[in-house]
Give the backbone structure.
Amino acid sequence: MSALLLGTTPALLPAADARVTAAVPALASAAVAWRQVEATWAGEAVIEAERQSTVAAQTAGRVMAINFRPGDTVKQGQVIMRIDPSVAQQQVTGVQAQVTEARVGLENATREYERFKELFAKNYVSKSQMDTAEANYKSAQARLNTLQASSGQAATTRGFADVTAPYSGVMSALHVELGEMASPGTPLATGFDPAWLRATAQVPQAWIDAVRRGNRAMVEVPGTTQWIKAAKMVVIPSADPLTHTTEVRVYLPEQAKGLLPGQFVRVHFVTGTARRLVVPAEAVLRRSEVTGVYVLPEKGRPQLRQVRVGERQGDGSYEVLAGLREGEKVALDPVRAGLTR
């Protein structure tokens, strides 16, 4: 029995060593290195809608129907709400009746004018009577033209009972409810076009020249890893005498998603280039107040090391201020590295 155990023991040892070796899986890594990166100045900004408007009532009446609510997507030309057209319809009917009356009056004035012209040619009526007939004819003609214009205006006002969207977008606010009275000028609803957004930042005068020369910016959305390259940038040619800052508008591309007017973001303005020690952003692990990375030694298991990092760079890396040296390898998946035993 002892001989059997002694004979089998050497065969079991290699298998145990293999299990220990397999317990440390290969991890994707990257080396800490000095790189020439874009130097930036970061500032707080607010998202604004380039196209945002409030539609108002153009006719008086009670709100009969509301077809869209805040958060709904509206296409250009769709009816947002309907106002009772009864009052506007009565105006159209009244003006049309006046047009009919004026048309009959013009026909009578025309016949009288033609008759007086014939009589005047034969010297049967005086010049004064002829002038009166001509004045009556022109007055009737002018009255008909005026009432026809009023009829068109009343018909247009009747069309204002259907409140339509001036462009495609998202409704952000509703200012009236079903059954409320609306009069011309009453705000009804507010909407914006999510494809036309910009970030507005106030840049100190000490940085405005560098920001203008760089003429490039990236928008960081806090709470996410999303960085959006600006489509264009406009420096407003004026300064605030109280804060000594200049407004800079950073226009976002149409494909930018998930941003809303009034949202807080950070804008990174490119001011030049600088040589910095950097580490990939995906290698950085944040737990409460601790920031660290898993360093991969040549032998042994990953080791968690606390580091101090600076601003995130536009290429998706962090500047290393303390805790790492050039050439050290770090795990690109810190969660998996922490589970390695």
User: Anything to note?
Assistant: The chain is about 30% helix and 35% strand. The helical segments are 2-22, 86-121, 127-159, 205-214, 334-339.
